[in-house]
Amino acid sequence: MRIRHPLRQVIPFAALLPMALTVIVGYLGTVLWSLRISLTNSRSFPSDTFVGMAQYTRLFENERWLLSLHNLALYGVLFIGACLVIGFLLAVFIDQNVTGEGVLRTIFLYPYAMSFVATGLVWQWMLTPGNGIEQAAHQFGFAGFSFDWIVDQDMVIYTVVIATVWQASGLVMAMMLAGLRGIDGEIWKAARLDGIPTWRVYLSIVLPMMWPTIATVLLLLSTAVVKLFDAVVAMTQGGPGTASEVPAKFIMDHLFGRANIALASAGAVVLLVPVLAMLAPYAYARSRKGRA
Amino acid sequence: MKRRSYFNPARIGIYAFLISAALFFLLPLYVMLVTSVKPMEEIRLGNIFALPLQITLEPWRDAWSGACTGASCEGIRGGFWNSVAITVPSTILPILIGALNGYALSFWKPRGASTLFGILMVGAFIPLQVMIYPLVRVLATFGLFGSLAGIVLVHMIFAMPVMTLLFRNYYAAIPHELFQAARIDGGGFFRIFIHVMLPMSLPIIVVAAIMQVTGVWNDYILGLVFAGRDNAPMTVQLNNVINTTTGTRLYNVNMAATILTSLVPLAIYFISGRWFVRGIAAGAVKG
């Protein structure tokens, strides 16, 4: 017989105390705090003077913020699109019984092990006009070749796309490859019997069947998009001018550089909205499943 | 599987695509390596893809112990040891707490715990920027801001969702009878955890450790904000070396510093290979 100690009942609760504190203080508390600050006129220190939605109005009148949102949207579409296409193509090609599969997989994925800072710095150096790829092209005899996107206000965001796609598409490849391998071989036999061309099978049958993998990849990539900060700091520091500004960097600058924590918090709350919108249907489905 | 005939146009096309893709992926690594062993004169004159005419290890020595960040010129070795000091506890503690959480959630199911876990999972997606300022204030209140303990605590907070999820899913697959048997034998909460569950958890601990070490080592933003000047991790120092230098940029030193900073995660990746992928994939599948 086991004796029911009152203490024993408490232990599981006590063990979860760090988690409870993290949830209540770390997650819920900080979100409410940021929300509160965003409604005040705080500058370097939190203040208790509430100004309603004034910070949000200021935020959306701020050219730099609007530019950063625009950059994020453009970056997000291009980054996710390119990662999906390149990752899927690499996975499909690797899945053709090629020799040296292990080596190829290793090569495609190694950038993911590196930090965004390191990745950004390498690409910065390769893309610097007069120094990297441009100079190399000149020496190969293409005297008129010019590649100055990284210092061009209109093109700089594309260089961030190049560097981060280089970093992350290998991961997409790895996950897509796992997805491809999970598909029943019978499908291929049936398609061959029916004489359907391979590319058609991939596009119309395999791709739709890989929806769960693609959803996971999308989730992973979109979280990375919202977080985009390190790579921009390392590559362009938001420049030239403010041309490659992104929301995460805008918020950090106003928190620590420009002593405008209310405006920064408003920006952070705005960033939270699309995340919650994405999560709400998911959380709802989960709670429904839990009840059933 | 699919067709097996070799040497037809389709196969040549497949290899052509894969090899050119591989070259594109290897290019930056090649440029980094080659640049890091060239003297500056050669970099100024030659193109970035050319092999070095004269190999020098001077840039590596400079990057390690001579490169300047702002006023001091001590290289990034300080950052390396800071990163080690941050990474070791930021790996061990979150794994222990994650394992404990997963264990309590899977087997003891205290009331309200699953709600807590649900909020934690949603919390995993909250943008960092929403949490940063309040966390700065909380840590400052306890005198932990800018300290080693502070940055470790922050890493623990941000690792909590994934670590808990990993272990919860792992323990969910363990037969409940095993736990019942241990209880009938008189095992208490911690006895069962330490003597039964932890020894069984080795595979998932390895995955979690790979995730944490790479993640913490590669972190930039948390280290920048919370670690303070004395504990700045290698990534922060690397960016300082390269982006705040005035005058001529020492590209060879910069590239050597970049490689040095990436060495630990790359080594883990090359050694652990498949586990690395499994870790990321497991972390990605939330809920």
UniProtKB/TrEMBL annotation, chain A:
GO BP annotation list: transmembrane transport
TM region(s), chain numbering: 12-35, 72-94, 106-126, 155-180, 201-226, 261-284
Bilayer topology: Multi-pass membrane protein
Subcellular location: Cell membrane
Domain ABC transmembrane type-1 as annotated: residue spans: 69-282
Matches recorded under PROSITE patterns: ABC_TM1
UniProt superkingdom: Bacteria
GO cellular component, one term: plasma membrane
UniProt xrefs under SUPFAM superfamilies: MetI-like
Keywords carried by this UniProt record: Cell membrane, Membrane, Transmembrane, Transmembrane helix, Transport
Family statement drawn from the similarity comment of this UniProt entry: Belongs to the binding-protein-dependent transport system permease family.
Protein name listed in UniProt: Sugar ABC transporter permease
UniProt source species: Massilia violaceinigra
From TrEMBL, chain B:
SUPFAM superfamilies for the chain: MetI-like
CDD domains per the UniProt record, alphabetical: TM_PBP2
Main localisation: membrane
PROSITE patterns the record matches: ABC_TM1
Cell compartments where the protein resides: Cell membrane
Pfam families tied to this protein: BPD_transp_1
GO BP terms in the entry: transmembrane transport
Family annotation (InterPro entries): MetI-like (IPR000515), MetI-like_sf (IPR035906)
Organism domain of life: Bacteria
Keyword Secreted: no
Residue stretches spanning the membrane: 12-33, 84-104, 116-136, 142-167, 188-211, 250-271
Topological category with respect to the lipid bilayer: Multi-pass membrane protein
Keyword field: Membrane, Transmembrane, Transmembrane helix, Transport
Gene Ontology CC annotations of this record: plasma membrane
Domain ABC transmembrane type-1: 80-272
Record's keyword annotation contains Protein transport: no
PANTHER family: ABC TRANSPORTER PERMEASE PROTEIN, GLUCOSE IMPORT SYSTEM PERMEASE PROTEIN GLCU
Family from the record: Belongs to the binding-protein-dependent transport system permease family.
Record protein name field: Sugar ABC transporter permease
Organism: Massilia violaceinigra
